[in-house]
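target protein:
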Amino acid sequence: MIKEVCVKNFTDIPRMIDAGANRIELNNDLAAGGTTPSFGVIKQSVKYAHNHNVPVVVMIRPRGGNFVYSDEEFEIMENDLQSAGMQNVDGVAFGCLTADNKLDKPKMVRLCQLARELKLDIVLHMAFDEMTHDDKIESLDWLKSQGVKRILTHGGALNTNILDNADNLRELIAHAKGKIDILPGGGITAENYQEVIAALGVDQVHGTKIVSMK
């Protein structure tokens, strides 16, 4: 079972690993939904986590808000992805959409290409949940062709209980099997993750409170 903890800075990482986190999603500014952390935070986090055999996935997101990026913002994302790769991270999480909430395929192709060149795991983050359910299903083969390893999803609007989205998530998991890992997240805690696992049959979960802090 992989417990991926979403953290907002290096300071949280030692205690989260001590509490049982075995993968880190590293962010800045979780209040804005998570943005790209600084060079120094990434470097120190990777050093510590790797010393404890824990992989680190870095958020590539230049700002909070929507996932429709200008050319200038996209250039920032390219540079941040390359910088993260140079610091020996294990993966990167990103997502680019069009104004009508479909995948921005030209931007996604470029970021996926960069990540593959750097031999990084590619994660599509919760931008995925802005898409319609049908578009999500239809996108799986294309995302697999771009080297996407897993998709972080709540299965519906983030203000809903994830177990209320179990049918949507099970359908995604069924269609994604053998293609891409589905990583449930959003509202999953140390108290309810076993219920989520039982409902969905997954072997990995994601959250800011996924491990119990004494």
Q: What stands out?
A: Residues 114 and 154 are 27 Å apart (CA to CA). The two ends are 21 Å apart (CA to CA). The chain has a mean pLDDT of 96. Residues 2-207 form a domain with the TIM Barrel fold (CATH 3.20.20.380).
